[in-house]
Amino acid sequence: NAGVTQTPKFQVLKTGQSMTLQCAQDMNHNSMYWYRQDPGMGLRLIYYSASEGTTDKGEVPNGYNVSRLNKREFSLRLESAAPSQTSVYFCASSAIPNTGELFFGEGSRLTVL
Amino acid sequence: AQSVAQPEDQVNVAEGNPLTVKCTYSVSGNPYLFWYVQYPNRGLQFLLKYITGDNLVKGSYGFEAEFNKSQTSFHLKKPSALVSDSALYFCAVRDTNAGKSTFGDGTTLTVKP
Description:
The complex is a heterodimer of chains A (113) and B (113). Helices cover 0% and strands 50% of the residues of chain A. By secondary structure, chain A is mainly β. Chain B is mostly beta strands and 113 residues long. Chains A and B meet through strand 4, strand 5 and strand 10 of A and strand 5, strand 6, strand 10 and strand 11 of B.
């Protein structure tokens, strides 16, 4: 049971570089999310996709773009990385947008120098 | 806008004693409430949720939570704490009109032998 798989698990970037975080779920869930976790700040929603073909901004979307490639995959792109984007990124999915619990990946730790 | 407050950054209890981790929320509609646990260097794991019905919700690993509408609270409880319960706990809320969850800042639970 793979659940939610994120790649890469670790990445170091220089300021201005770009990268894409990949996320795939095998639970046939409709909704997918990207969060970032910073010490003492809980989880903050970056972008979400309530269903295939739709994406919406969350609380902290600036500096990020997303693509819902298909029902399984939801990628997060940093076009020009900044030190403020150093964080742990979590992808999550949910079967039902409102009442369904979130299933999380193991996280991607990104450091921007 | 919806919000969640976890007033305690840290909760310390002795093994075998009851534990409570506090959570209060604010939503415009009816709340859907969730508790998640995070172990070091792992993703979040779902513990329990309140959608409707009985105000006392039972979840994984012996945890339970009580929904109190008048106090807008959803405190996590366990009658007898284990050392293995030591982890970071997050409360989350969705309202009925939004598919996205808002998380509290988290409470670190430490259970000492």
